[in-house]
Amino acid sequence: VSNGAGEFELIDWFRRRAQPHSRLSVGIGDDAAVLTWLRSNEALVTVDMLMQGVHFTIPPATLPQVGRKALAVNLSDIAAMGGRPIAAVVALALPRTHSVAAEFAGAASGDSIGRGLFEGIDELADQFDVAVAGGDTNSWDGPLVVCVTVLGEVAGHGPIRRSDAQVGDWIFVTGSFGGSLAGKHLTFEPRVREALVLQQQIALHAMTDVSDGLSQDLYHILEESSVGAVVFEEAIPISDAAHMASDGRTPLEHALEDGEDFELLFTVAPQDGRQLVTNPPFETKLTWIGEIVAGSGCQLRDRLGRLSLLPRRGWEHSL
Amino acid sequence: VSNGAGEFELIDWFRRRAQPHSRLSVGIGDDAAVLTWLRSNEALVTVDMLMQGVHFTIPPATLPQVGRKALAVNLSDIAAMGGRPIAAVVALALPRTHSVAAEFAGAASGDSIGRGLFEGIDELADQFDVAVAGGDTNSWDGPLVVCVTVLGEVAGHGPIRRSDAQVGDWIFVTGSFGGSLAGKHLTFEPRVREALVLQQQIALHAMTDVSDGLSQDLYHILEESSVGAVVFEEAIPISDAAHMASDGRTPLEHALEDGEDFELLFTVAPQDGRQLVTNPPFETKLTWIGEIVAGSGCQLRDRLGRLSLLPRRGWEHSL
To answer: Within 13 Å, how many C-alpha atoms sit on residue B175's CB side?
Structure first.
């Protein structure tokens, strides 16, 4: 039973702030959002839940950064399917006034937490022309939880799965890896445009985004495709943050295992690979890091040609 | 960084258990799910987050009941738009082994909590031919959070909004109201089939589902449509649970204010209303409870014809 102000005021605020979008015929404020779905016979859908204390802490993260990340990780998933994001819905568990979690969020009320999150969501949504279509607003005495679902359309040659890597394929990655928790996990650019350019210019075989760690996510592709791989150790693009870490693990280990890089990892036929190496299709760094081989598992090949098993390590929630 | 078993094992279990669906070309286990979207140019999308201690407690709720409810509330929203649900994605925050929340869930681990939830989700999804398309699995030391997003297609005359009530319309509800927390909120049947039958047989004007309370949700329709209403006090269908409550509030107050009834509340032109009264289109109880009038606000009319203002009370999250 209600106390008058609260949830509905915040929803009204979202509704006034949310920008109109050509694909959105019913937005925030009804039982469900209505999207026009003209260009494609297929719909992509992905969801990610971010929890305070697990995926972010405030500080160092700000509320707009948390909102931005909650949308960005989903845009990264749509990019990883080779798709175009269209719309997002946002479900919130907001810490109630005076709760410990609200205090850590640096906000006096769930209302101001909601508005702070929306700023980051809305800015990124605008940047990628994504409609903020609706959501669900709740409050409790627990930590902040933000759950974003994104719908997308299939582009180019259709959805790019993890299971279509072929023996002989070249393996590529965008960007660099490791040490994301030092900052990149809050500010990364989801590789939506890069994925759409790749869809236009070549025939992508398998693709995923690196969220669990380069090693872990490569193993996902290998297992789904029933193939193996050789990765060129010296080719792995290692981020500055991985070089700066001083916890006893090498920069390479950070690059292979840290996760939350949100870069694209994909395979293409050798002729397409040569084209990408010769004529990089965008400014974002693109690196040829290995080859798909018959069999299973992944070998790391060093400068001297020696092979060792790539350890499968990365982020996984223990249950 | 991972400890080996955990999240991925549970996801594999979901993947093996999830049933194939004609509309699902890529299901659990890739970056995003892919749905075929042939019949309609419009997509409906709705999301609801259920939090342990707010929307359910365990006990008395069981894990399958919680999973079922998390899907059912979304099916109710799709029904309220006059749509047909197609697919669901599920994001989970699972209490970690030995956490207090896990203990209250009566489960030894997040893994068994996930499986328990899935049972209830899967059974209801199967009943309404909804594809369980994917999700996101996380664990923490906090309470259980279940966030379900449902996609649907528009049926019949298109999406039924809250804003299309017309002066002179008759107001109808399915089912009966009040006391839902005594049990119905965990076991209700979302009115999907009823909404689709109504779409076929008549021209629905405004519709919503009653989640916040009959009074509150009727006010939502009135405000969105810029109209008023007169509700016939003696016509309000009051549930047995509302009659059995003994907290000093009358059964009528329970029926008008309790919320979580998940019944349809809709308006139609008088000639369609007469048809519904004369030839009820389904076995589910259908009651003519009032009329839309010019102006604003809602009057309650008693047996003697006396009018009083219907208090706007119901569920709202205070922030």
So the answer is: 25
Distance, CA of A119 to CA of A63 (rounded, Å): 8
Q: Taking CB atoms and an 8 Å cut-off, how many pairs form between chains A and B?
A: 280
Strand ordering across the sheet containing A131-140: A131-140, A83-95, A145-154, A42-51, B33-36, B24-26
Q: Quick check: B193 pLDDT over 60?
A: yes
Chain A touched by B152 (CB under 8 Å):
yes
Instruction: Note whether B315 contacts A: Cβ–Cβ < 8 A.
Output: yes
- Interface predicted TM-score (ipTM): 0.92
In this prediction, residue A15 carries a pLDDT of: 87
The answer to whether the beta carbons of residues A101 and A95 sit under 8 Å apart is yes
A12 near B CB under 8 A: no
Pairwise CA distance, residues B96 & B117, whole Å: 15
Residue A296 makes CB contacts below 8 A (sequence gap 6+) with: A222, A223, A226, A227, A228
State phi, psi for B267 to the nearest 5 degrees: -125, 145
Query: B5: pLDDT confidence band, cut at 50, 70 and 90?
Result: very low
Q: Chain B contacts of A40, Cβ < 8 Å?
A: 37
- Output the pLDDT for position A57: 92
A317 in B contact zone (CB under 8 Å): yes
Who has greater pLDDT, A31 or A120?
Answer: A120
Most distant pair of Cα atoms in chain B: their distance = 71
Within 10 angstroms of residue B28's Cβ, the number of other Cβ atoms is: 20
In this complex, the residue of B133, B145, B313 whose CB is nearest that of residue A45 is B133
Q: Which amino acid is at A44?
A: L
Q: Which residue of B has its CA nearest to A80?
A: B31
Nearest CA in chain B to A76: B31
CA distance B74 to B46: 6
Which B residues, 233 through 252, put their C-beta within 8 Å of a C-beta on chain A?
A: none
Q: Do A319 and B135 touch (CB under 8 A)?
A: no
Report how far residue A39's alpha carbon sits from residue B152's, in angstroms, rounded to the nearest whole number. Answer: 17
Tell me whether residues B142 and A143 touch, CB distance under 8 A.
yes
| Both structure tokens of A98 | 């005076």
SS3 A164: coil
Q: B137: Cβ–Cβ under 8 A, 6 or more apart, which residues?
A: A317, B7, B10, B11, B14, B91, B92, B94, B114
Q: How many CB atoms lie within 10 A of CB B301?
A: 18
d(CA A135, CA A149): 9
Which residues from chain B sit within 8 angstroms of residue A314, using beta carbons?
1-2
